[in-house]
Automatic annotation (TrEMBL):
Signal peptide: none annotated. The keyword Zinc does not apply. Its main location: membrane. Keywords: Cell membrane, Membrane, Transmembrane, Transmembrane helix. The chain crosses the membrane at residues 29-54, 61-80, 142-161, 168-190, 210-232, 244-264, 296-316, 348-369, 375-402, 414-436, 448-468. GO terms for molecular function: transmembrane transporter activity. It is a multi-pass membrane protein. It is found in: Cell membrane. GO terms for cellular component: plasma membrane. This is Amino acid permease. It holds the Pfam family AA_permease_2.
Length: 486
């Protein structure tokens, strides 16, 4: 063994900490992953754009996206029963597609989830300023608001996953409740054209516009896949992880489709696109709330959007910390990043992620950048694409894993479901890349740079794996968790 390999082994032997066993039940995991999707933000901020593009068929895009992700989950959850190491996509892809591809996926996951989370600080600053202006008539520099959010996210992450899950549960119930109340008000009051069902009309559904909206719809589900990342912290993981996954996807699919359909009914299928075009995408949900519920609902939604975005920030922070923990425990990142507090919180990983957030957000503040157009769009979009690529790789990994391990117990439909999910996710990835300008609103050059982040991050992991295989074979063997059983 070389000196560097001995040093690496000695460093790893400093006994990295353990995540808190049994900290999460099914409900806690559901709160964590659904909060990452930020339902209120998705419905108030993105759904109106989907309606503007696809009109009455917009709810169908959410149904299609949800159905595809359920099919993906069938294979993914079947694999989680046989691969027990902590590490999410990084671990599962490593076990099926090899350690080189696996480490590429691990670095891509680290970059993608950081991009998702850090970009959202810009959105937090924007929605918080909107709330403060409405409530108190004041405006705070967006950097101050973003830094306060960073501090708040770090604090809850530091105190442990179970504390964070309880807070997220309260926030999720609140934001879901206001949308349900609004939906009921629309259903009871009725719109100008009565109830209609254009979402099932083939002439409206099978259009280029709906294919574009599929990318927006998929983005509203991001975060559900992290259920497997909490395996070592879950009670009865073989049952609670699949149950939480299906509950999260099922809830989001039905909830999104129904709310978007009711938004359409509120102004009529023939008039809703014109209404959004006249009043603006960002104002649509608030005008609808004011019309059907009154000003109190607008004020409530303004406050709850702030907590919705914060909940998403915290959920992604927890996800990032667990990917960092897994990579550090396997010797890829410094061993210190795998240390935990007595409550099982990977506090060093959390601190490093917080510092990274401060540096990137601070850079945008110093540059005088726009928190929405620059920080959110430029940083967040590579994360969206990267996570979708990870889902695609994971779905293909399920096929390879069960074909190679034919003796493992599984339902007959697992591999066919994985094949179907792989095809669907590949199509979705192409659609998002082709229509990337819809997500970013940027020019061709900026979009090319944004998209380039994904292959570059993956290739960095691949190159590292090749180097480790030659110079640090013991570290290479630990990629993906090795033979460790968490």
């Amino acid at each position: 063994m070389s000196i560097s390999e001995k040093d690496a082994t000695a460093q790893l032997s400093e006994a990295p900490g353990e995540l808190k066993k049994g900290a999460l039940g099914t409900g806690g995991i559901v709160f964590l992953v659904v909060s990452a999707a930020a339902p209120l933000t998705a419905m108030a901020g993105v759904a109106p754009l989907a309606i503007l593009i696809a009109g009455p068929a917009a709810p169908t895009a959410y149904l299609i996206a949800g159905a595809a992700l359920v099919v993906f989950a069938i294979g993914f959850m079947a694999m989680t029963r046989h691969v027990r190491q902590t590490g999410g996509f990084y671990t599962y892809i490593s076990h099926a597609l090899g350690k080189t591809v696996g480490l590429g996926a691990g670095i891509l996951a680290l970059v993608s989830y950081n991009a998702m989370q850090i970009g959202i600080y810009g959105l937090f600053a924007v929605v918080t300023n909107g709330m403060l202006q409405t409530y108190f008539g004041i405006e705070v520099p967006w950097g101050v608001l973003a830094f306060l959010a960073i501090a708040g996210v770090w604090a809850l992450g530091f105190f442990g996953i179970d504390v964070g899950a309880r807070v997220l549960g309260v926030l999720l119930v609140a934001e879901t409740l206001i949308l349900l109340i609004l939906g009921i008000a629309i259903a009871v009051t009725g719109g100008p054209e009565g109830f209609s069902f254009g979402l099932f009309n083939p002439q409206l559904v099978f259009t280029p516009e709906v294919s574009v909206v599929l990318g927006l719809a998929l983005g509203a589900f991001l975060g559900f896949e992290a259920t497997a990342l909490y395996r070592s912290e879950a009670r009865n993981p073989n049952s609670s992880i699949p149950r939480a996954t299906y509950i999260a996807i099922g809830f989001l699919t039905v909830f999104y489709a129904v709310i978007v359909w009711l938004f359409v009914q509120a102004w009529g299928e023939s008039g809703v696109q014109g209404f959004i075009g006249e009043n603006g995408v960002t104002a649509f949900a608030f005008i609808t709330a004011d019309t059907f519920l009154g000003q109190w609902a607008v004020l409530t939604m303004l406050a709850l959007i702030v907590t919705s975005v914060y909940a998403g920030l915290l959920a992604f922070h927890n996800t990032i910390n667990r990917y960092t923990y897994a990579l550090a425990r396997d010797g890829i990142l410094p061993a210190a990043l795998a240390r935990t507090r007595r409550n099982g919180s990977p506090h060093v990983a959390g601190l490093v992620q917080t510092i990274l957030s401060v540096l990137i957000v601070g850079g945008f503040v110093i540059a005088g950048a726009d928190p929405f157009l620059n920080l959110l769009i430029w940083v967040n979009t590579p994360g969206v694409v990267g996570i979708l690529v990870l889902q695609l790789l994971a779905s293909f990994a399920v096929i390879v894993f069960f074909v190679r391990n034919r003796t493992l117990e599984r339902a007959w439909y697992v591999v066919p479901a994985a094949v179907l999910a792989t095809a669907a996710l590949a199509a979705f990835t192409v659609l998002i890349v082709v229509n990337i300008d819809v997500l970013t609103g940027a020019g061709a050059a900026a979009n090319a740079v944004i998209l380039l982040v994904v292959p570059v991050a993956f290739l960095v992991g691949v190159v590292l794996a090749v180097i480790y295989k030659r110079t640090r074979p013991a570290t290479y063997e630990r990629i993906g968790g090795g033979d460790r059983d968490d």
